[in-house]
Every structure is written in C-alpha cells, then in structure tokens.
Amino acid sequence: xxxxxxxxxxxxxxxxxxxxxxxxxxxxxxxxxxxxxxxxxxxxxxxxxxxxxxxxxxxxxxxxxxxxxxxxxxxxxxxxxxxxxxxxxxxxxxxxxxxxxxxxxxxxxxxxxxxxxxxxxxxxxxxxxxxxxxxxxxxxxxxxxxxxxxxxxxxxxxxxxxxxxxxxxxxxxxx
Length: 175
Ligand SMILES: O=P(O)(O)OP(=O)(O)OP(=O)(O)OC[C@H]1O[C@@H](n2cnc3c(O)ncnc32)[C@H](O)[C@@H]1O
Ligand SMILES: [Mg+2]
Description:
The protein has six helices and six strands. By secondary structure, the protein is α/β, with parallel strands linked by helices. The protein has one domain (2-105, 150-174): Maf protein (Alpha-Beta Complex). Strands 1, 2, 3, 4, 5 and 6 form a six-stranded mixed beta sheet that branches. The site of inosine 5'-triphosphate has 18 residues, from strand 3, helix 4 and helix 5. Residues 6-166 form the Non-canonical purine NTP phosphatase/PRRC1 domain.
C-alpha cells in the first residue's frame, strides 16, 4: 500500500506512518501547494487545504491513497479567542473522506497576535524560544506540556478520515 502525503513536514509524515502502521504502508512525502493561505483562518479553509493536498499528492504519484493534513485557526462557538484546529483528507482517486483532529483553545496573547496577522508557527517559536516547533512537538505539545503532540494530534484526524476505507473493506487486498 502506497500512501502519498501532501507535505514534507516530518510531523505530518510521522503521523501517517504511526497511524497506519498496521498496514505497513510505503509512505512518501510530496511538497504540494495547499491552494489556501499558509495560515488558514476558518474550518472551511482548513478542510479545503487538506483536500487539495490529498488530491495533489495522489496525482503526483499514482499511489493507492493521497493524504492531506492541514492546520488552521478558527473561532469555535462557546470558546473564547481563537482555537488551533486540524483536518485530514484522504482520497483513493474516487472517494474523498474527511476527519477532524483535536482542537486547542489558544491563549489570549496568541489569539491577539494571530488577529494582528502573524502565523501560529512563528508566534509559538517566539513565545517558547524554539526554532521550528511546527516541525516537532507543535503547539499541541507545548500547550499540553507533552500530554499530546502535533504528530499524535494529526494522527487522530487521519484515523478519522481513513476509517471509512478500512471499515468498508476497501483495504482487503492490501492486508
Ligand atoms: O509544510 P507544511 O505541510 O505546510 O507544514 P506546516 O507546519 O506549515 O503546517 P500547515 O501549513 O498545515 O499549518 C498552517 C499554519 O499553522 C501553523 N501550525 C499548525 N499547527 C501548528 C502547531 O501545532 N504548532 C505550531 N504551528 C502550527 C503552521 O506553522 C502554519 O503557519
Ligand atoms: Mg504550511
């Protein structure tokens, strides 16, 4: 089973490898354009970015599945400030499935900086004196003191998007 990921960010590739481990997939990473802003700012924009990455990764390779993972920020009803959200999309070239990952309410100072136009990755690096935290534990790791991390969180989104392909037996030939 060849799974093409629409990103070269190692946390995204690891999320796919870890979540789909039981299928022992060949996972390849592809730098594709998400087609949305580098910092998506709504659920819709985040989902669209994930879809576009999934489609383009599959087109680039002709693999079995294309996977798109996208992070964004959005307002969630009942939660103050902005929240970090993440969405996954998986396609086999015919079907397209979606899954959401954990949501993290962001601290007020982070929300203010996002509203002033900054991106989350650089904000978190500045705030925590790190370099490229979006490619390691991520905001999910820092804001939970390691109770989760970006790979694990993205993996939950992927599991939800990949589930329908497994449940309906489409993977039978690959197991
Ligand atoms: O190479 P790509 O796949 O684009 O990897 P990325 O880290 O930029 O990931 P996204 O484009 O999906 O994320 C959109 C923005 O949100 C930021 N972001 C998302 N999740 C984050 C996290 O857990 N920690 C820090 N920044 C995060 C990220 O740095 C981007 O500015
Ligand atoms: Mg990006």
